[in-house]
């Protein structure tokens, strides 16, 4: 029994691509099962979320709450306990050599010291800086549960050497064009819109030319030179073509090429580790049967029950039939090693149910009119008819809502959609119609029911009282627009693309976690640098400070005139919004209220997010779409083309006669 539990742990690790070396003693294996239990992992993620969310309530806060130190200490205690638990599972030599564990311990110690120092300064009425807060994402990255985020980080790290060479060449191009701009425009006494000298400071030129790569300051940066002579526009056109289009495309090509190369190595490594785990499990359960070692059928069944207790008996029998094709009553080594992969295959059990109406009212349900209705619903013309209705509905949505006829028409469309759902439920068995893999049926029904409830509520409130609830009205409008998405399901190519996006969503969420880490770190740093430098005043304020966002340095600046005052780093939420805008490098106003060197903060953020992470995500999407969407007509391969003579004709759709 003990060997069976240990073997199940190996198979479970192989199934989920975990590479955690654990002690094989009974106590360590029990602790390992507890460590990997879903409740322990959920608790870890919960406290990581709490630790990150503390930034919402700490100064500068979105909602300031007192006594937050105790929650921070509680999170640190949970993290420390989780780390101690992990130390009880893994061998000491492995634990102390693991960089992730060292990072977690150092982060806990540094955060604790920072809390003590910050608390002492607050008692002394001295303003302190929480310099440990940017370390909080380390807990999200380095715990064993976050291996997917670490793999995403590793993918980016592996592409850095090749990206670095392209980036240096790109920066050389920017610097060269900036030097040319200084020589071309610096001595012509040109002025910007604000009246400041145009292209006379080299560092200022470099920043503006870098921003031009993102097109955030186009065509503003070009206009003074263009007004002087239209010939100068050629300089900026050539610059944009080279740096915005060619270099950005080269970045993507380099990232994609390196991503594919390292993806192969990653898959090879995971396959090797998975096979090693499965062999270790096999060695624990094997018995000699004739000339070879095998695992008995009873042992195999007990193992599968331990590893996947939720699968059905029929699913388990199917796996056994695949593993023991010759029905010998045992599983050989080659078939056993495949078990982890077989468990990862999604098996959909289709149960043929009779329609409830066929059971309750068989004569009515199988009558001629009923068969005619069911045949009509199954026909393609029924789908096409509702596609036309959706398109007509789109035209009505775009029309004026205040027109009573348009309002009545919305009720008509809603009734037609409800009739469609009812007819489909009448035709198809409800349990099959709402099966777990029937995403579009769930989507259609949810949208129609939500739209019905919101529309009825909207109408009832209007008839009972003086209605001024814009929120309910907004929900109605959104649901009406979402109904148009249903047409995607009717077009095969659209459906394939949407299903591909749904399938790659877990991977995208992994990179989303990595983006969250970068945003969080830069937000905390940005708050420490720019907090209080820019202030927002409500629209009805009469204070003169509102004209320059509460900072005289922004007086008469484009930043203040454009009313960007709400774009500030005064709390974590505002910082996230500004960083989203900074993705296109368009917040140079902060350099006016601090120092010109602050522009390095924005450039660094853009390099990390856009050039490193987003380009990697682009490469990932390309690779995933290649894998998910099958090519329709590839034509001849390269070898076939090379082997063809000039007189050979390669048929587009060759037909081969049967040789028999």
UniProtKB/TrEMBL annotation:
One of its GO terms (molecular function) is monoatomic ion channel activity. The keyword Nucleus does not apply. It is a multi-pass membrane protein. It holds the Pfam family Ion_trans. Keywords: Membrane, Transmembrane, Transmembrane helix. Residues 39-261, 382-625 form the Ion transport domain. The keyword Transcription regulation does not apply. The chain crosses the membrane at residues 38-57, 63-81, 102-121, 163-186, 229-259, 381-399, 405-427, 439-460, 500-522, 600-621. It comes from the Eukaryota. Residues 632-660 are annotated as: Disordered. GO terms for cellular component: membrane. It is found in: Membrane. SUPFAM superfamilies: Voltage-gated potassium channels. PANTHER family: TWO PORE CHANNEL 3 (PTHR46726), TWO-PORE CALCIUM CHANNEL 3 (PTHR46726:SF1). This is Ion transport domain-containing protein. It comes from Anolis carolinensis (Green anole).
